[in-house]
Each structure stands twice: as C-alpha cells, then as structure tokens.
Amino acid sequence: MLQSSSAQWMPAAREGRPVGVSGQISAAESGRPLPDGRNIVILRNGNEVRVALVASTGVQRAWLVTSETPLAEVQLAEPHGTGVVLVTRVFTDDRDEFVVLVLDRRGIVRRFSLDSADWAETAPLSRFRVRGSFLYQLGSTPAGLFVDRFDLEVE
Amino acid sequence: MSYVWKFLVAFVVAFSLAGAGTAGAYHTQWVAQNCNYAAPTPTSYITRDGSITVALYARNEGYQWAGGCWNDNDVDDSPGDPKSDPNTGGEGADCSGFTFKVWREALDESSTAFHQWWRLRYIHGPYTAQRFKNGDGAPNYPLSKSAAIKMDAYASATHMGMIYVTNPDGTDQIIEALGESYGTNIWTRAYRGNSSYSAVRRLGWSQS
C-alpha cells in the first residue's frame, strides 16, 4: 500500500542531494527523525494518543494521553525541554478545537485550548510550529490569515 | 492574386481561427468520444474492499465538474479544462459523482439497491456534496464522525471524499475527486476533526 508522508517519514535529501523514490521508500520510518538523532513516534488510536521519544538505545520516555472527547489528528509533537509539546484536535460532530499539552516526566504540566481557526484550507499538518519556548499557530478566519504566538514556559 | 482570391483566403483563415477558438474552449469532447449510457449492472452486495478497488480505477484519471466517466490508463486525458465549467466534457468525476458511482447507488433516490456503473458509463447521480452531507436519499445516512471507517465519507457543503485508510497520526488518507488542477487521487486530510465536515455512510455494506 502506498503510504503518505504523514504515515511514513522518508528522507527527501541526503548530503544536499535529492533521494529517489525507491531510496525514500527503503529508508521510511514510523518515527520522525530529530536533529539530535532521536525519533519521535506518535500513534492516535480512538480517544488516545501515544507519544514516545526513541533513541538508538530504545524508548527514552513515553506518554499515553486519553480523552473523553474524540481525538482527530495530532497537529504537532515536538521535543520541548525534557518532554514534548503535543497539539491535537478534539472534536464532536459539529465543533472542534485544538488542545495544547506540555508533557514531561510528571505528565501534563500545562494545557490550554485554541480555536481551530481553519476557515481556509491548508496542508493538513501545517498549522503549528515551535520555536524556542513559543508555539506559533497559523490560523484563518473570513477576515484573513493570522499567526498567533503562545508562551510554553511552565512556572 | 485577385481581390476575390485574397478575400477567400482571408475568409478561410479567419474561419479556421474561429473554429480553433471554439474547439479550445471545449477542446476535450472526451465524454462524447469515449463514454456511454449503458444500463448499470445490478449487484446483490457491496464490500468496502471491493469499493476501494472500484475507486482506485479512477485514480490519476482527472476531474470533471458534474462528470462521471473515466478509463483506466492512469492519465487525465483532458487536462487543463476550464475550471468551474460542467460542460467541457472531460474525463473524470467530481467529488459527489465519484462517491455515487463507487457506492453503487441508484438514480432512484428511494432505492437502496446496488448498481454497478462501469467506468465509461457517463453518470453523475442526483446528489451534491451538500445532499450527501444531509444524508439525502435512501442509501445515505449521517453517522458520528468518530465512527467512520474505510469507504465511509466526509462531506462538507462543497466537497467530499471517502476514507481510504487512517494514518497513525489521526489524519486520514482520503480518496477523492478534488479538482481540475488536482484530478482524482489519495491525499492525507484532516476532515475528521474539521467541523465543516460531517460523516456519511452508504447503507448495506457486506463484511470486509
């Protein structure tokens, strides 16, 4: 079965040279490679999300997040400090919003919700970025596009 | 060359250019040359895996607003049609026509029977994306989005697609007739959680 890039992470280039299709497929991984050599693996199944930071020696840390409200896609899972920041969408049949979770060894240490603000269609997983200790959201309303910034620091 | 001949040559050239311009606007005529109006073949059941096979024949075959006819050569044989024009006669289906055909529905909205429309049968069916979203027609009914599985559909007021497979990150790979610039294919989508979309199911799937 042909899997999309969000199901399999494939190298697009190595040492500045593009990788061919067969090379991409043979190097596909379920975890997203991180600059420090680790991988981050996510699995959304029903109303739960599993997140793991994996090093060459095995799983370093893992979290299981459960929700009473159905979960849709994981928009972002990115290392943050000693843990990760996770953005996922909760939904009912007529409403939805994003939930931002900061996870560390203690579990959820910070949580807040964001309007989905997805009036305009974009690539499905393009709405959030983490830079430093800030989370950025690309949103849209009938009035136009915006980028909001949120502080992820935990007191 | 006499004035009469010059006039005739100019007339022929002008007439040819005018004809080319008309052909350019509706250049494909693909439906007229390739499609048919054969009666559908009744079938006694429909399976989700079988409908995936049917849907995959349309992959890479283009898009035509209000269309519903394609072959299986993995090429859009009428690329670059004018957009938002249902009369260009190009290859491919639109989103709701694609779903209608893959779900083997009947033109009679009160019928839940399964009708196999062959690839080159030109048919769109009576439903728009909005009507699928509403659950209009006896074979279609809304269901909770969290319960949707492969070959159920997500429909908004203007677009729809069917679930091909669910990704580990919670997105879905959707098989859909997306637009003239994109054709029909499988793309990763976040329709499941998007409140613009509702889930709709075809009545009467057999196992698998």
Provide the descriptors you would attach to this structure in a database record.
heterodimer, A: 155 residues, mainly beta, 2 domains, 1 helix, 4% helix, 56% strand, globular, B: 208 residues, alpha+beta, endopeptidase fold (from Nostoc punctiforme), 6-stranded antiparallel β-sheet, two-stranded antiparallel sheet, 10 strands
What does this structure look like?
The complex is a heterodimer of chains A (155) and B (208). Helix content of chain A is 4%, strand content 56%. With 155 residues, chain A is mainly beta. The termini of chain A are far apart. The N terminus of chain A is likely disordered. Chain B has 208 residues and is an alpha+beta fold. About 7% of the residues of chain B have low confidence. The radius of gyration of chain B is 20 Å and the shape is globular. In chain B, the strands form 3 sheets. In chain B, strands 5-10-6-7-8-9 form a 6-stranded antiparallel sheet. Chain B has a two-stranded antiparallel ribbon with strand order 1-4. Chain B has a two-stranded antiparallel ribbon with strand order 2-3. Helix content of chain B is 25%, strand content 21%. Chain B has one domain: Alpha-Beta Complex (endopeptidase fold (from Nostoc punctiforme)), CATH 3.90.1720. The interface between A and B is medium-sized, with 30 and 21 residues.
